[in-house]
Amino acid sequence: MITIISPAKSVNFDEPAPTEVFTIPEYLSQSKDLVRHLKRYKKPELMELMSISENIADLNLARFKAFKPPFNLENSKQALFAFTGDVYRHMRLSTYDAEQLSFAQNNLRILSGLYGYLRPLDLIQAYRLEMKTKLKTDRGPDLYHFWGNRITKALNRDLKATESAALINLASKEYSRIANFKAIKAPVINIDFKEVENGKAKVIAIFAKWARGMMADYIIQNQLKNPEDLKRFDLSDYKYSENDSSENQWVFTRPRPE
Question: Which long-range CB contacts under 8 A does 239-245 form with residues at least 24 apart?
């Protein structure tokens, strides 16, 4: 099965990854085109486009200016180890052995506003570009139009190549929207994590991010290929809730932490 996750706004390029094995993003030429558009923006325009502060705008203008292929281990870092947001902090990345890392490379995909579709060992350079950004290009008014059906085609290709039984969606709605699930040629299983309080279960964003990371890690650590095995996930007191779940929407619940 193929699992998809979101990227993170926060990154770490100061420390090297624990492996020197790397690959190159499939859509790097498309990324170059996006950077070309972004370099045209002045600071106030970028602040408005991305809803960011002046300091973050300065940082990203410098990043876009410094963006320069070809990528190598001196100017780039493997995506799985570069992102440091809530999802990635709850993955035990430093414990992965060569076999688990190879499994992740074959079965985990990271959706990205700038790079589109990333394997864990694909090299990236520091950036911030959320998928919801309304960056106008010759393909349309936003990044969803820019990427079009490329991500859906890539997922179908990889699902077929790995003989996957399902696509596991651990990405946020903002990022999973880039894939047309109706055109995916395998069952799509969306995962929700909910906190139960006073008899009511609801999604709390920060806890859901942590849980997505834990489940992605659980899949890699155990090298799971059968979706049914996910129902045994029980980290941080989460349990599969059959009553709250449907065929394509699996819900894991726990009592809300204090």
Answer: 241/194, 241/201, 244/194, 244/201
Q: Mean of the pLDDT values across residues 127-134? A: 97
pLDDT at position 258, please? Answer: 79
- For residue 1, pLDDT over 90 is answered with yes
DSSP 137: B
CA nearest to 30, candidates 134, 143, 128, 107: 143
E strands within 123-184?
Answer: 123-124, 167-169
Domain ranges of the chain: 2-255
- Provide Rg for the chain, Cα atoms: 18
DSSP 47-106: HHHHT--HHHHHHHHHHHHH--SSP-TTT-EEHHHHB-SHHHHTS-GGG--HHHHHHHHH
Beta bridge partners of 112: 116
pTM of the predicted model, to two decimals? 0.97
Contact yes or no for 159/183 (Cβ under 8 A): no
Residue 55 and residue 46: Cα distance in Å, rounded?
11
Contact 77, 17 (CB under 8 A): yes
Write out pLDDT tens, residues 214-231. Answer: 999 999 999 999 999 999
